[in-house]
Amino acid sequence: MGRQLKFEIFRYNPEKEGDVPRMQEYTLDETPNMTLFIALNRLREEQDPSLIFDFCCRAGICGACAMVINGRPGLACQTKTKDQPGHLILHPLPVFKLVGDLSVDTGVWFREMYAKTESWVHTNKVFDPTQEEERMDNEVAEQIYELERCIECGCCISACGTARLRDDFMGAAALNRIARFVVDPRDQRTDEQYFEVIGNDNGIFGCMGLLACEDVCPKGLPLQNQLGFLRRKMGITAMKNIFRKK
Ligand code: SF4
Ligand code: SF4
Ligand code: FES
Predict the structure, then answer these.
(1) Domain match, 95 and 173 both
(2) pLDDT value for 211
(3) In this structure, is the dihedral angle defined by the CA atoms of residues 174, 177, 182 and 188, taken in order, positive or negative?
């Protein structure tokens, strides 16, 4: 006989007039290999059709199902109930705009942050479709691939003390994305130009380095290495700027 799970779920629909934030309780019989994705769908189908939450891929790929599970940001579709206590407390991710209950809008945040950090390859080369593709070292291609594995779930941003205090802080996901362009040989930006974008308190110098971001990243991205890499690079650029002014 499986456990009877007790759920305490944050409820609030900002679109519903007169609605107030509250915690609502549900109980559900645990089944073998149950994930939070299965549990929440059963709660919605069997007990409360008004419950709002997001899912797309159910396979840890789309990042839509991120939420705070017993105080820790994580993906609901990748969380087995057997690995959790019988009492589950679920909140939406902080920092992002609340859509309703457990659903937040991470898309707008990422779009704005990527625009701010100019998250695209900057090159003066004119594309010539008749030319052969330019080759890239396997090692560099693998490094870029590793940093491209971010699924934009927002867990690292929600776990970040700085991002929670300051909504203009870029956060680990945006800084990781910048690191991706720094290692890309096609991007012709200089360290000076990167410094203009991330060499400030909203960027790499605002990071306190406590690495909650890496602890919660469901894709295991090497955020610690990337933040360290950017901090060293931007620190050297700052020193060069000081000596240049003298
Ligand atoms: S290491 Fe930096 S980016 Fe990561 S959680 Fe801490 S302050 Fe945020
Ligand atoms: S870096 Fe990790 S935790 Fe942050 S958004 Fe990307 S996948 Fe999610
Ligand atoms: S539903 Fe896509 S990551 Fe969970």
Answers:
(1) no
(2) 86
(3) negative
pLDDT tens digit sequence for 182-198: 999 999 999 999 999 99
> Among all ligands shown, which has an atom nearest to the Cα of 73?
2
- Cα(169)–Cα(177) distance, integer angstroms: 14
Residue 109 is assigned to a structural domain of this protein: no
- Residues 173 and 179: their CA atoms lie apart, in Å, by 10
The residue range of the domain holding 8 is 4-104
Ligand 2, atom nearest to 66 Cα: 8
Q: Is the pLDDT of residue 103 over 70?
A: yes
User: Pick from 76, 104, 132: which residue ends a domain?
Assistant: 104
Residue 111 lies in a domain: no
Question: Over the stretch 150-193, which tens digit does the pLDDT of each residue have?
Answer: 999 999 999 999 999 998 999 999 999 999 999 999 999 999 99
Residue nearest to atom 8 of ligand 2 (CA): 153
pLDDT the model gives residue 245? 67
Parallel, antiparallel, or unpaired: how do β-strands 22-29 and 97-100 relate? unpaired
Q: Is the CB of 55 under 6 A from ligand 3?
A: yes
How many structural domains does the chain have? 2
**Are 43 and 91 found together in one domain?**
yes
